[in-house]
Amino acid sequence: MRQNPERRAALLDAAIEVLAREGSRGLTLRAVDVEAGVPTGTSSNYFANRAQLLVQILHRTRERLTPDPADLAGPLDTRELLGRLVERMRRERSVHTAMLELRLEATRRPELQSELAGFQGAELEANIAWHLEAGLPGDRQGVVLLYLAMLGLIVDDLTAPGLLDPYPLEGLIDVMVERLLPEHPAD
Fold this sequence. Notes:
Elements: H1 5-22, H2 29-36, H3 42-46, H4 50-65, H5 78-91, H6 93-106, H7 110-133, H8 140-159, H9 169-180
Helix pairs in contact: 1-2, 1-4, 1-6, 4-6, 4-7, 5-9, 6-7, 7-8, 8-9
């Protein structure tokens, strides 16, 4: 397998675009080659098979979606952070759509489901730890509930644009934070 990291990243970015646009059935090594504008067979030099490509896409989506450390510096406000999350999702729409496709594909591929569950579980635990260490309001369960609520908001924004138009995004985020992450949780 080839080891050129820049070429691998470019192929994975092309794969993300194909997956987001064509769905899982349209994701082939040949389609990735076409999207990346490289000679036919290039992707097969980097990925042994489609299953390996799917796992590599999973990891590449995280690289692309990890916030800039500058976005997490300074005084932190949960509402502002969630607003930035939605902005990043909208800027990286194809990456989030590809992640949804990976989730759906994982329901049909036990090996991908295992990888996805481990990957997502580690990400969720890291996010909970970061939130609590940053001294933001709420407890562990509240952070999990906020994660689930934001996931629903993001899925609806991606798949049914306009659905939430009657409900201003900032207002939805404010209510989520107030209800799920109270300053002083009940004992």
